[in-house]
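--- STAGE predict ---
source: upstream dedup step, 1 unique chain passed
mode: sequence only
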Amino acid sequence: MNDAAPPSTNELLTAVLFGPNFRQEHGFWRRLLTTEPFRRPGGGTPDERLALSYHRMRILNNALDSGARLAADPRALAALHEWLGPVDPALTTVAGIHYNLFLGSLLDHDADTLRDVSDFLALRRVGTFLCTEVAHGNDAAAVETTATYDPGRDGFVLHTPHAGAQKFMPNTSPAGGPKSGVVAARLLVDGADRGVFLFLTPLTDAHRALPGVRVRRLPARMGSPVDHCLTSFDHCFVPRDALLAGPQGRIGDDGRFHSEIPNRRRRFLTSIGRVTPGKLSMSACAVGSARVTLAIAVRYAGHRMISGSRAAQQVPVYAHRTHHGPLAGAMATVYAMSLLHRRALDRWESAPEADRATESIVFPVAMTGFARSGAAAQRDGDPARLCRPFAADRAGIVMGEGAAVMVLERAEDARARGASPRALIAGTGATTDAHHPTSPHPSGDVARAAVDGALRDAGWRPEDVDHVNAHGTSTPLNDATEAALIGRAYPHRPPVTAPKGVLGHCMGAAGAIEAGLTILTLQHGMIPPIANLDAPEPGFDIDCVTKAPREVPVRRAVSHSFGFGGQNAVIALQAP
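--- STAGE serialize ---
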């Protein structure tokens, strides 16, 4: 018997307007708009309003778990525009350009090249997108800005040949901080026109345009105070890796142009592939603005009092039937816009591109970030031996990819249908210490609280644990902290394994994968060894399984997952 209450009318209407995943897709943006900087009226001069928009964008960026994740998620980009558009159009414009057109273009190109985008993720530099030119309007394929390959310097010389080739785009002045742009320019190699490509180009510092770049800010106009500018280039040099390369084309080490796409127009369309998510985002902005306008109209109709049919009678506007028709028509339009936009998003996401169906951590932005933070292993030698959990010479994480799925069912339901469970979840524990973005708290006390919580939830004593599946990232700090924690939490020294020596760090999937491996250990009584480990670092008082699997009875086991930001989760599993 299902005792769940039926969904309310509000819940049903929310699902119609926003889809079935309102909290996941829209909850963040809704909460963000309740904070003070977004509730504050955006008055003042155009420059003051623009400064407020950039201030809000930095607050937004700090609230994100990853700017790269936002840039890679078309639904999140659409939701940004849907919610922020009615509140701050200038913010919506500069954020959409930065995260989608600029950062998204960097993510979509050079899959085999590590590019440092840390300044853009931290908003130390704001990104813009320079495609449209004064003389060509929407005919972007006809752009005349050139990028001539200079083999002597192994780079490109960007040049604006005449006034009509000036870039006419917003978000280019020093307002809001230093700027970089992806610039659409015609690639010339050995005198041959290879089509229009994108080039990553620094534009300004905090005060002025950089050498070789001219930015002329246009007069303020009514509406959004975005800094519209004319931007041009006077023999501005950028290195070879400034070209956003891919199957559409690249310059090889031999200085020759190579492309898998023979048609120049198709090369250009591939380069500016981020324009399509941009169109979806702008339509989301229209949907959100229409929805807010309707809400204001309906609220006004209920609150605005006017004279009624009798003397001295006050009634709301909505009491008059002549008001019903226009509101009903507007409501139908807004619902239709919302449904059509969701349909467009669904169809675009279902396009046959494999990277739209998966989440991957092995891409240039993430790899560069982990390398620059010092978390990734960076030493020569056999890549298969780089990840060495609990070893004295461990040097950092190695990225991995994978997934695990487990079907959870209440024990009584499993018994009722005669199912044979693989394992039972005896207890869980979770804590957060928020000590550092990547490093665990050196005391390990808060992570230890997660262990204690899982044991308490399971009703176990520490000595009841037969095996520990450790987080074991192969970083100096994590493994030292976790080894000390294991020694304190399990004084009877149960055997320990750490799967990341084989699998690498699968980030969000790691906890599920390692819980699945713990279940297999319960089933088979076989603990896999820690790869690449002969003996743990001296001083680590833990019983690491090394070199060969260890066959022992395992009835109760725990799996540790200690994530970035001090997010600690422990699950206690037992054989059925």
